[in-house]
Amino acid sequence: MATATTEAEVRESLGTKFGRLKEQAKDMASRHPVAGAAAVIAVSAVGAYFLWPVAAPAVAMMKAPGSGGVLVSRAAFLAKKELYFKLLRTGGVAAAVAALA
Predict the structure, then answer these.
(1) Where are the transmembrane segments (predicted)?
(2) pLDDT category of residue 84 using cuts at 50, 70 and 90
(3) Buried b (16+ CB within 10 A) or exposed e, 39-58
(4) In this structure, are 71 and 48 located in the same domain?
């Protein structure tokens, strides 16, 4: 029970800090429009950086045939499968997998 109260207090204090930061940003933006625009751009860039992995589609991976379990991109394999098998026969696993990278 004590842990839940402590977590709630921490969340509340973080929420209070965020609210104060938001108010300061609004005040600065009203007094200095160029600095406010720069702050909006900076916050957007940081948000995009942290949210990019969520927004980007996942790459489908597969085990490369005859490679002993090495993972490769499914799209790359389907695009170059003839080259992959030719290199697998002649150059070995390392050369075939490198051709898909």
Answers:
(1) 34-52
(2) very high
(3) eeeeeeeeeeeeeeeeeeee
(4) no
CA distance 72 to 61: 6
**Amino acid sitting at position 45:** A
E-strand stretches of the chain: 61-63, 71-73
Residue with more model confidence, 72 or 2: 72
State the Cα angle at 91 between 85 and 94, rounded to 5°: 85
Residue 71's beta-bridge partner residues? 63
Distance of CA 93 to the CA centre of its chain: 30
Indicate whether this model's pTM tops 0.70: no
37 and 79 in a single domain? The answer is: no
Q: Could you tell me how far CA 54 lies from the centroid of its own chain?
A: 6
Confidence band for 85, pLDDT divided at 50, 70 and 90: very high
